[in-house]
Amino acid sequence: MLIHPWDAPHDDAEWQRWLAVHDFGQLVVNGPAGEPPFVQPLHFVYDAEGGEVLTHLARPNPMWAALLANPDVVLSVVDDYVYVPGPWQAAPDGPPEHGTPTSFYAAVQLRCRARVVDDPAEKAALLNRQVGHFQPEGGSAEVAVGDGPFGRMLSGIRGVRLEVTGVRAKFKYANHRTTEVRDRIAAGLTERSGPRDTAAREHLLRHRGA
User: Fold this and answer.
1) Engineered SS bond to 80: which of 26, 31, 190, 199, CB 3.0-4.6 Å?
2) What is the pTM of this model?
3) For residue range 27-59, what is the model confidence (pLDDT) as tens digits?
């Protein structure tokens, strides 16, 4: 992922705050020699203090052999993406039709070292942390080894702990454009009011004010 200096986050706190509420991504695992990578969509919990990601997958998933053979993986998260029409980005002194269309998006890629979790008690604790993150209001029985509605299901999954070893983050929202152009884009996003336009506008305005 190309990251121009103007698209880089201001600090670690910026991408960490964003990732805390964007908890669905794609886990990319190196495939066997001569084969493409495995790409697995999944929900996850990012633990900024512990520097790790917690998740789990079904035991029949075909990626396990590749993950155990090479535990160096990438977790990729992309959201708040929108299409920006060319005229919105046109130079103030040029014709609108000469503006360049582009994409806006936020992206975080975590390079990680994976550890597979098969111990039943550790899997139960991992699942309870995930449920606590996604259902803070409660409503589900606690996962316990050999007990309750979920204990007998533990054998059907494997947990994954991803130790974060590197981060690449990008917030591509016309950060290098003039104030006039950025204001025009913000107005266009407000008027269009399509999916993700509000989130994209918030990114644009936040970086403009930094």
Assistant:
1) 199
2) 0.93
3) 999 999 889 999 999 999 999 999 999 999 999
